[in-house]
């Protein structure tokens, strides 16, 4: 098994087999709305990863009928899909020995300012999801909105009361604070008791650019001590059909060399 090689990919044959070629430690399966119609294939992929001794994670679908998911959406179809797909993936986690990354939302929510009242509303919605605190669902931050660490109420009003298991996306946090490494490290310190998993991605801190490590402005020497000993992947934006994951592999080499 290749030390430090931790990858993300789809469940299609081309992507999945490419990731296996690198003999990784961890693979995160990025799922789509369409993939939820073939949960047996999702299970098969997880079983193959576990058979090879590879840590298996999933990423909850990001969209429903072309629109980004939002746990607070009142649109009936999205409301139902968010909860039904979460329940189905949680059951797969329990039965197949995997974990699943999930977003409360992806972009800023219209009519939901980052105030205390809205944050409490978000907390109540998350707390109503069966298994939200099981440790099998890992809640990921966004670059803006209520579930972004630039929301001053997120940690104290949502994460701490719920004891919420987290996936911290380092680049999302960095972007949320417009490229401030000091504030990024403050969040990494405060969330350490709840963080179970990390997405390691570089950024210039201005937009969702998903750069290879070393290509942006994140101070990885300061980040690494918070991440060591926990699970993570390199979630780098890929070109073309997203099959070639060499930028993720190269980021793993970069990360391994920090401090060596």
Summarize the structure.
This protein has helices spanning 13-21, 39-51, 76-96, 116-127, 154-162, 170-176, 181-191, 220-227, 246-257; strands at residues 6-9, 26-30, 55-59, 63-64, 67-68, 99-103, 137-140, 166-169, 195-200, 231-234. By secondary structure, it is of the alpha/beta class.
The N- to C-terminal Cα distance equals 21 Å
* Percentage of residues in strands: 15-25%
Helix content: 25-40%
Unreliable stretches: none
- Describe the sheet with the most strands: 8 strands, parallel
Count all strands and give the number. Answer: 10
Spatial strand arrangement across the major sheet: 1-2-3-6-7-8-9-10
Instruction: Output the structural class.
Output: alpha/beta
Number of domains as seen in the coordinates? 1
- 3D shape: globular
What does this structure look like?
The protein is of the alpha/beta class. It has a single domain (6-257), classed as Divalent-metal-dependent TIM barrel enzymes (TIM Barrel, Alpha-Beta Barrel), CATH 3.20.20.150. Helix content is 39%, strand content 16%. It has 9 helices and 10 strands. It has helices spanning 13-21, 39-51, 76-96, 116-127, 154-162, 170-176, 181-191, 220-227, 246-257, and strands at 6-9, 26-30, 55-59, 63-64, 67-68, 99-103, 137-140, 166-169, 195-200, 231-234. The chain has an 8-stranded parallel β-sheet. α4 (116-127) runs parallel beside α5. The longest helix is centred in the N-terminal third of the chain and has 21 residues, at 76-96. It is globular and about 50 Å long. It starts with 5 loop residues before the first strand and ends with a helix. The relative contact order is 0.12. The model has no long low-confidence stretch (mean pLDDT 94).
């Amino acid at each position: 098994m290749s030390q430090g090689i931790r990858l993300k990919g789809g469940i299609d044959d081309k992507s999945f087999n490419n990731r296996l070629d690198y003999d990784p430690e961890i693979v995160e399966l990025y799922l789509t709305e369409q993939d939820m119609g073939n949960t047996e294939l999702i299970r098969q992929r997880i079983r193959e990863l576990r058979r090879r001794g590879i840590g298996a994670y999933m990423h909850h679908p990001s969209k429903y009928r072309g629109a980004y998911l939002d746990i607070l959406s009142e649109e009936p179809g999205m409301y139902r899909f968010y909860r039904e797909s979460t329940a189905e993936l949680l059951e797969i986690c329990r039965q197949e020995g995997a974990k699943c990354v999930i977003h409360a939302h992806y972009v800023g929510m219209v009519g939901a300012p980052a105030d205390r009242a809205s944050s409490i509303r978000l907390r109540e919605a998350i707390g109503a999801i069966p298994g939200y605190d099981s440790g099998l669902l890992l809640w990921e931050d966004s670059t803006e909105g209520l579930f972004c660490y630039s929301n001053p109420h997120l940690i104290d009003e949502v994460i701490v009361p719920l004891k919420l298991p987290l996936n911290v996306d380092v680049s999302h946090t960095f972007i949320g604070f417009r490229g401030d490494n000091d504030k990024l490290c403050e969040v990494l310190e405060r969330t350490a008791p709840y963080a179970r998993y990390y997405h390691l991605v570089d950024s210039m801190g201005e937009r969702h650019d998903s750069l290879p490590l070393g290509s942006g402005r994140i101070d990885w020497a300061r980040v690494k001590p918070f991440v060591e000993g926990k699970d993570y992947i390199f979630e780098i934006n890929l070109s073309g059909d997203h099959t070639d994951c060499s930028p993720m592999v190269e980021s793993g080499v970069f990360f391994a060399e920090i401090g060596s």
